[in-house]
Amino acid sequence: MTAAPGLGGRRARVVDLTAGPLARGIVLFALLLLGAALIQLLYSTVDLMFVGHVLGTGAAAAVGASGLVVTCLVGIFTGLGTGTGVLIAGHFGAGRHNEVERVMHTALTFGLAGGLVLIPVMIALAPALMARLGTPPEIVPSAVVYLRIYLLGLVSVVLFNMGSGVLRALGDSLTPMRCQLVGGVVNVLVDALFIVVLRWGIGGAAVATLLSQTLAAGLVLLALRRLDERYRLRLSRFHLHPVTLREILAIGLPAGAQALVITLSNVAVQYRINALGIWDIAAFTVWFRVENFMYMPIMALGQAASTCVAQNLGAEDRPRTRRAVRACCLIGAVVTVVLAGALLVGVRPVLGLFTADPEVIARGTTIARIVAPCYVLFALMEVVSSSIRGAGRALPPMIIVVSALCGLRVVLLMALPRVFGTVGRVALLYPLSWVVTDTALLVYLLARRRLLWGDAPAAR
């Protein structure tokens, strides 16, 4: 490992994924990613804990109903961040520092401009979006308030995610975690102030998240300004370099489209959930928060796999690339089995952290018993698709995931609405779609194994 400037001017430990013990490097890099992701969960998790216990089940359902709209928007820019990270990791692994600097400034400029354009548009559309999702009329006003305030922080969310992606592509996953920790602590304190003390209601929860996310984004940008002189962030260098932007979009647009379509398929699921009633909405809202503690380790491994593949292909070390993908798959399987077992043992107390309603807990338990044992399938899907993207091929995993994962869910919900009329049956959609997607990804990988295993140059 080497040192790089971190938060507050200190030297952050950077994991070099092109040298040293491979499994140790992947685990350390993924653990730091996981730490940042778990801290990020504080934004939504603490909101829900305060809202569910202080404001009640209706307010918790309103947070859940509005959350998918935000996820759609963030998913687009997360995909662009994926394209940015793959390019930067490849250039960094090959020692092309001028290209690292060019990709970073182009990506941040595009993200900033896109966020500023979308904020007023989405604020104006918020009521119509909530109505189109089939949100129960009694919680629409609260959902709109939460969504509109949250949207004011969209630029902060975009800049934090893209800036953190740059640091991680360079091998520094510690600094984003530190920035998230500061923002997470502030979020808890401000939530208590706005909801419990000042009684601002659901708007107070959204304002707390807005302030904490803005702080975290500012800290990440500060860290980028303290990078190596050859590729540090400079305000004077903010620009859209056409060729670099096309390279980012070539990887980022398919990844962003994939994230968007996944979320839209979840919107279709949410539409079905909204038709079931407030208790079912609240149960899925609570479950999605709990599920994040399994989802985040898997996403961290996926990001580690993508970065490791891109760096090692940039360094032209294909045997190490092959070992990295296998190691990530094995680690993902072990982690998900352990976490799923622990969750199933204590599912009721865990759900009770977010709601005191026994009916919500009972329905949430039903969801957990169906979905949690199958999460190893999701881990395999994430590692394999991220590895393919890390090799510069973003379109194939997008087509597979959109068709097999999202298309299946939407088709089944539309074709068989009466069959999926209970919480348990809607939950079955998730493991069923994972099986189909995993099969398609593995078939593609075996058919194109030279992409990672062979001697042909990686696509860029």
What does this structure look like?
The protein is mainly α. Helix content is 79%, strand content 2%. It has one domain. The protein contains 15 helices and two strands. The protein has a two-stranded antiparallel ribbon. Helix 1 (22-55) runs antiparallel to helix 9 (278-314) and helix 8 (242-276) runs parallel beside helix 14 (395-415). This is MATE efflux family protein. Keywords: Cell membrane, Membrane, Transmembrane, Transmembrane helix, Transport. It holds the Pfam family MatE.
Reading the helices and strands in chain order gives EEHHHHHHHHHHHHHHH
Number of E strands: 2
- Helix- and strand-based class? mainly alpha
Domain unit count: 1
Helical fraction: over 70%
Label the overall shape: globular
Chain-averaged pLDDT:
81
Strand content: under 5%
**In this structure, how is the largest beta sheet organized?**
2 strands, antiparallel
* Strand order in the largest sheet: 1-2
Low-confidence stretches: 1-12, 455-460
Terminal CA distance? 27 Å
Question: Compute the gyration radius: what is it?
Answer: 21 Å
Q: How many helices?
A: 15
